[in-house]
Amino acid sequence: MATPIDQAKSPSTSPKGKEKSPSVSPRHSPSQSAGPMTPLAGLVAGDADNPVPVQVDHDAYPDDPADVDSTYGSDQDSAYTGSITSSIYNYQYENGRRYHAYREGQYVLPNDQQEQERLDLQHHIWRLLIGGRLFTAPLPSMANEEDELRILDLGTGTGIWAIDMADEFPNASVFGVDLSPIQPEWVPNNCRFHVDDYEDQWTYHEDEKFDYIHGRALSGTSADWPRFYQQVMENLKPGGWLEMQEYDAWIFSDDDSCDRAPWTMEWVDKLDAASRMYGKQINVARYQKQWIIDAGFEDVEEKVYRIPIGPWAKDPTLKELGKFELTHMQMSVDSHTPALFTRVLNYSKDQADVLMEGVKREFRSRDLRLITTYRFIVGRKPLNWQGGGGGV
């Protein structure tokens, strides 16, 4: 039986029509872009001020409690070949997880196989939320062969979104930027990956500006969001679009479930506190829309989706999403906790492990109705924008 991670992974494809990215030397991977997805009907976006309660299916869970606890193995890391500076692959190992080497310490999440599986599963969830699509900004139809868009994906991770966009827009030039060279070796001809830190000064020239800049789950990665959005603005073409896909680093409920989930609420509270102390607050998704407006973007819109953690919702769409989100959130606990809690809050590994297990146990509980929120925020650069020049 296919697991949520299996379903989120892309079908195996032939290298035909693909080429190696010259800017990285990533691992071999049988997965390319995510295949066609069946849209989940009935999902309605709300807004942050008027959330729609999630109706509960009281018969959602199986008779065997073990059936709601999923553990997924992972393949061994594939071999790398060296075509870029080898120091980028001098990964740091800590608390049983692997972290990036380039600009060590700038990013507190791991980059190992377990984390890559989480990112690909998360990609599947984002697509399900919007009917299998990759974006909500009003980009030209992929059927228009005249559109040679320049697209930038910030924090590209495994590169799965960038690869899917390159497949969907074969005449576009798609660029993915990340601190870790963990993208697949065979990619579409129109897709490139670069190891870089978008917190640095951007160095794109005037003729390299973008039609569309995309960022997903970047909360906790920037120490200066106004500067970040200023650089995005400067490097978009007039009329170009920004899209941020973010989720709140917090847990919600429509009843008293949060009051009955002490491990979970301690975790999110301390996670946010530790990220503040680290200098890159993680629970900032709710501020992104205003920051984008303050940066001068026009036509800014935000859609907020609420996803149950677990298959307890009555609505079949939310039930399906909840199954994936339960797995994703358990993996997120494992990836988000170790570095911040041991480096900043001085937890021992054993203390962090106890906390993580308590949180995951509450996520699996039949008696708790916990909810996460995902946000899609888009904004357009004004045609007559006068501030600053390109990032040269």
UniProtKB/TrEMBL annotation:
The keyword Methyltransferase applies. Keywords: Methyltransferase, Transferase. One of its GO terms (molecular function) is methyltransferase activity. Residues 22-35 have a biased composition (Polar residues). One of its GO terms (biological process) is methylation. SUPFAM superfamilies: S-adenosyl-L-methionine-dependent methyltransferases. This is Methyltransferase.
